[in-house]
């Protein structure tokens, strides 16, 4: 059995996205945990004021105040900073707890198992910490306890025994939790993928078109062009009416397969028999898709009710250069749509190209 689900369940990129989303969605739980820690420590400070041994508890109270300050600080920066590194902000607690236990032993000459076990269990309640993070935290505490056992006059062997027993149980629980959380995320990814994919052709659907285009535009470099092609299957209604809708679906699948081979960055079934291809191109690639109609002529799909006797497409391609402003999807769509209708008005089975003047 592999030890850390965070290392083997997903690819590194997917794990990064999962951890980011987990941190973001559980930020409020992390802050609630910090509020509870603050209240818990403040209550101990308040109780210690009525202790006859005020001098002996002063050092411990200073540590408690430091941990309260850390909690308040973490609550503040959790609201200000991105949640990407949220889990790493808790590691300082492990070091502080070690020093706290050491000071407690020096002050009271004892350390019962309840404190370390409570700390070990409390780490489990922080959802964004996966097993790897918690093993680090548990190990920091364990090293601190071992130092106390080896280098102080107080024996805490039973505390160590119960602490390690608790950690083993918590690690098993955390392993199962890590697997369950990742299975849930994987199921959500599959559902999201289904929602963004056209089930007939396997292309992206209209729902996901904007998101993919925005991503592509962000990656566009100055002087590059964004090309958008709008493609419509000619005389498709006649094909459906005469060959039947099942055969019509087969034609759409075949058209989609040929369009997928055109080297586009994004392939979309926009609706019905209409498709969109989007691609980032350079100055010397403005001839992209010039062979589109030939692709359907070379391996014709019979269509007796078309004047061409085989399935053809009409297309309009719009090119927009990234100069002072990034290309606009709305402008590209409108320009490509106009160009496509020019192709249809000119007799179909052709491609019309339009370069948008910035």
In words, what does this structure look like?
With 358 residues, this protein is α/β, with parallel strands linked by helices. It has 2 domains: 5-196, no CATH class; 204-355, Alpha-Beta Plaits (2-Layer Sandwich). It has 13 helices and 6 strands. Helix 4 runs antiparallel to helix 5, helix 5 packs parallel to helix 7 and helix 10 packs across helix 11 (245-260). The protein is elongated and about 100 Å long.
Strand order of the largest sheet: 1-3-4-2-5-6
Mean pLDDT: 86
Number of strands: 6
Q: What is the subunit organization of this protein?
A: single chain
Q: In percent terms, what proportion of residues is strand? A: 5-15%
> Number of DSSP helices?
13
Topology:
Layout: H1 5-8, H2 12-25, H3 27-48, H4 54-80, H5 91-108, H6 114-124, H7 131-151, H8 157-196, E1 204-205, H9 206-219, E2 225-233, H10 236-243, H11 245-260, E3 266-271, E4 274-281, H12 292-298, E5 313-321, H13 329-345, E6 351-355
Parallel strand pairs: 1-3, 5-6
Antiparallel strand pairs: 2-4, 2-5, 3-4
